[in-house]
TrEMBL record:
Topology term for the membrane: Multi-pass membrane protein
Source organism superkingdom: Bacteria
CDD domains documented for this protein: MFS_DtpA_like
SUPFAM superfamilies, sorted: MFS general substrate transporter
Native species: Roseateles agri
Entry's localization field: Cell membrane; Membrane
Lineage, top ranks: Bacteria, Pseudomonadati, Pseudomonadota, Betaproteobacteria, Burkholderiales
Stated name of the protein: Peptide MFS transporter
Entry's transmembrane regions: 60-80, 110-128, 149-169, 175-195, 220-237, 257-285, 297-321, 333-357, 369-387, 399-421
Signal sequence region: none
Family: Belongs to the major facilitator superfamily. Proton-dependent oligopeptide transporter (POT/PTR) (TC 2.A.17) family.
Length: 426
């Protein structure tokens, strides 16, 4: 029997066996990611084809913007914890993002629009997931899988965005696509604002501040080490949209039933497998939790890093086989198998890490610590770009082996930090 959950404020209403607040946060995040990735699907093409940027300049602007959206959450999380509160920060941040998307309709406002989106994202990004854990009692067995369910919302928005905003932008004009992204953000804000009764209340800042010096402050060093390990992991993980995309475009046979599958469709495999595997993973963890046998967060994360490493080893073997015969293309089925293993590993590390940072955040600093988790995304993306420069020198097979080694090293580092984290939690 599912135990009833009483969130702060006495809310115990459930939907599909989970707190209704999780559905609210899920849908809000889905529409936010729809708007965010919808704009990104068009951004580079818009700069080159409409604003007549050179490819180099467009790439630079894109990189600066992508980095900025993972830096601003540090300031947004601190502002929410210290002054604004999470709900107000989300509403202000979402409004700024929607305004930025609509401002993209005017070419003269391109850079101010990007600034609005980056600043709004800084207020929005760390504060929404920091509320997930507060929906559950500390001993609720559903809590371990809550962030994986939330993660599905992220991927659902990311999957729909290029299909809707990208198609509208290409068929009916860039500004229609950007406008659709803005509408998506407004829908997410409306869902969040109208369903506040299902969400945990903000802790008053005046009460929260003195509690920061509590028992959880000892977890800062372990969390820092976890973040560094995740940066190394992401340097390999983020190659799916970088060097792996190049390999898929040039060396993978993508013919299916006489039809050449567009290489961009490859990016939909990851969110598709997230949808398929998440219910199975969460159900497995929940059964293990009821028996007292659920692995710790860092063990899960280490297993996830190892799983991604295995997926890259598989590609290394496949690529080596393809290189033995000149001009031979790799069967596209191997790409499908790779993404199945890769996504299963991802589900064990990324949403689990997000939940770990939220759970160990000192009282009154939840959004700030969540922002630190996203800072690892910033570092990992930058390092992935540096690592990707070794593609030509190593060749596909050698490069994939290197990515497996990086993932394995990250997993080993996470296991090494586990005893320190247990002592900090004791």
């Amino acid at each position: 029997m599912i135990p009833s959950t009483t969130a702060p404020g006495g809310r115990s209403s459930t939907l599909f066996g989970q707190p209704r607040g999780l559905t609210v946060l899920f849908l809000t995040e889905m529409w936010e990611k729809f708007s965010f990735f919808g704009m990104r699907a068009l951004q580079v093409y818009y700069m080159i084809k409409q604003l007549h940027f050179s490819q180099a300049d467009a790439s630079l602007v894109y990189g600066l913007y992508a980095g900025g959206v993972y830096l601003t959450p540090i300031f947004g999380g601190y502002a929410a914890d210290r002054w604004l509160g999470r709900r107000r920060a989300i509403l202000i941040g979402g409004s700024l993002m929607a305004l930025g998307h609509f401002a993209m309709a005017l070419e003269a406002l391109f850079f101010p629009a990007l600034t609005l989106i980056a600043v709004g994202n800084g207020l929005f990004l760390p504060n929404l997931p920091s509320q997930v854990g507060d929906l559950y009692a500390a001993d609720d067995p559903r809590r371990g899988g809550a962030y994986n369910i939330y993660y599905v919302g992220v991927n659902l928005g990311a999957l729909l965005a290029p299909l809707v905003c990208g198609t509208l932008g290409e068929l009916y004009g860039w500004h229609v696509g950007f406008g659709a992204a803005g509408v998506g953000m407004c829908l997410g804000l409306a869902i969040y604002a109208l369903n506040g009764r299902y969400l945990p209340p903000d802790m008053p800042r005046a009460v929260a501040a003195p509690r920061v010096a509590g028992s959880k402050t000892g977890s800062f060093l372990p969390l820092l080490l976890v973040g560094l390990a995740v940066i190394v992991f992401r340097s390999a993980y983020e190659q799916s949209g970088n060097t792996l995309a190049v390999w898929a475009d040039t060396q993978v046979d993508r013919h299916l039933l006489g039809f050449l599958v567009p290489v961009t469709w490859m990016q939909s495999l990851n969110p598709l497998f997230v949808f398929l595997f998440t219910p199975l993973v969460v159900a497995g963890w929940r059964r293990a939790a009821t028996r007292g046998r659920e692995p710790s967060s860092l063990v899960k994360m280490a297993l996830g890093a190892g799983g991604v490493g295995l997926s890259y080893l598989l590609l290394a073997l496949v690529a080596a086989g393809g290189q033995t015969v000149a001009g031979k293309m790799v069967d596209g089925i191997w790409l499908l198998v790779f993404f199945a293993l890769y996504t299963l590993g991802e589900l064990y590390i990324l949403p689990v890490g997000l939940g770990l940072f939220a759970r160990l955040a000192p009282a009154g600093m939840g959004a700030t610590v969540i922002a630190a988790w996203f800072l690892a995304s910033f570092g990992g993306n930058l390092l992935a770009g540096v690592v990707g420069r070794g593609w030509d020198a190593l060749g596909p097979s050698g490069f994939f082996v290197a990515m497996a080694v990086l993932s394995g090293c990250a997993g080993a580092a996470l296991l090494a930090v586990a005893p320190m984290l247990r002592r900090a939690e004791a």
